[in-house]
Specification:
8-stranded antiparallel beta sheet; disordered N terminus; 3-stranded antiparallel beta sheet; alpha+beta; single chain; 11 strands
Length: about 350
């Protein structure tokens, strides 16, 4: 799929004007802690707020749980390994995880591309996940489901659809991708992500586990009650990343070319380009466009790429406009609910501001 889109020319927006826009947007979000951060071609503006008293660490330097907004990190990792020639998008996951093991024919056909693009035919979570998760749904649903169980569930799976034929969002599939890349490279996921993505981009405040006391944001239920830090169990690749808002901007700036130091490594530069390229359409009249790892929408200022995520008590939004060098990172510490305005507010900053 190719796409040519020209963004309309816009006058430069001053940091003071951006600060006013962020302050106005923040009034629409009710949460104990809130960060709205914008980068325009590397010039950053950050608004912090919320109903809670600030902690010992400034909000913009506090690590927030990204939940499903972790998936773009997994996508960039896969794209870089492909650019290095270490794996291929069409490699079959079962062959890398368990060579020679008999599996269902549909499982045998599932490739790394299928896992990342939610076209594997796998459900959102393994069928046997729910019995152990439901009794602790509001406190620790994932911690009791370790990595080896995720892999076994994949190898025993019976996909509902032939791989590559339907799009269905799947934390299960992206988690399997993480374990597959670890097996293919002989490197634990956390180490692989650090070596290939976090360290090269200078993301020193991004990790997949809680940090020292006082450095991580505390999530809250809708009633304001604090919730424990997220334990993703075997679903690390799908939702374990934690990052400060400033690191989130650095990650996004690498995709827009707005960072002060753009990647010098050719495989990383190639991967950053690859993950922004539209690769599939889905839905009624194929209205929904996706790259390898980002949702891809039109806007008056050119295409926008974004991903949101939520955990038991936190939310995150990452998005950027390649045509104009705009990046938006937003975090909040209240569990998502039906009338929540957080994602809509962050999305509006990305799509409606010059």
């Amino acid at each position: 799929m190719t796409e040519v889109t020209a963004a309309p020319a816009t006058a430069p927006v001053s940091p003071a004007a951006t600060a006013r826009v962020l302050a106005e947007a923040a009034r629409a979000v009710d949460t104990p802690d809130l960060v709205l951060a914008v980068s325009r071609n590397g010039v950053r503006t950050v608004h912090t707020g919320g109903s809670a008293e600030p902690g010992p660490v400034p909000r913009e330097l506090t690590a927030y749980e990204l939940g499903s907004a972790s998936k773009p990190y997994a996508g960039l990792l896969l794209a870089r390994l492909v650019a290095q020639g270490r794996v291929r998008y069409e490699d079959r996951a079962a062959d890398l995880l368990a060579p020679g093991l008999p599996v269902h024919p549909a499982v045998r056909r599932i490739t790394l591309r299928h896992l990342l693009t939610h076209t594997s035919g796998l459900p959102g979570l393994p069928a046997d996940f729910y019995p152990q998760a439901v009794p602790r749904w509001s406190t620790d649903p994932y911690g009791g489901y370790p990595a080896d169980r995720v892999v076994r569930s994949f190898l025993r799976a019976r996909p509902r659809h032939r791989p590559g034929t339907r799009w269905r969002y799947s934390n299960f599939a992206v988690s399997v991708l993480g374990h597959t890349l670890a097996a293919a490279t002989g490197t634990p996921w956390e180490v692989l992500l650090h070596q290939q993505v976090l360290a090269p981009l200078g993301l020193d405040a991004t990790r997949v586990r809680p940090g020292p006391d006082g450095t991580d944001a505390v999530g809250h239920r809708r009633d304001g009650t604090p919730v424990p830090a997220l334990d993703t169990g075997g679903f690390t690749a799908a939702g374990a990343v934690r990052a400060t808002p400033l690191d989130l901007l650095t990650f996004l700036e690498a995709h827009t070319g707005g960072a002060a130091d753009s990647p010098k490594d050719s495989s990383l530069a190639a991967a950053l380009t690859e993950v922004t390229r539209p690769v599939l359409r889905r839905g009624w009249r194929h209205a929904h466009t996706h790259t390898l790892t980002w949702f891809h929408h039109p806007s008056p200022y050119g295409p926008v790429l974004f991903h949101a995520g939520a955990t038991l008590g936190q939310q995150a939004f990452l998005g950027f406009r390649p045509a104009t060098g705009l990046a938006v990172a937003a975090t909040a510490t209240r569990r998502v609910h039906r009338a929540d305005t957080f994602v809509a507010t962050a999305y509006g900053l990305l799509t409606e501001t010059p």
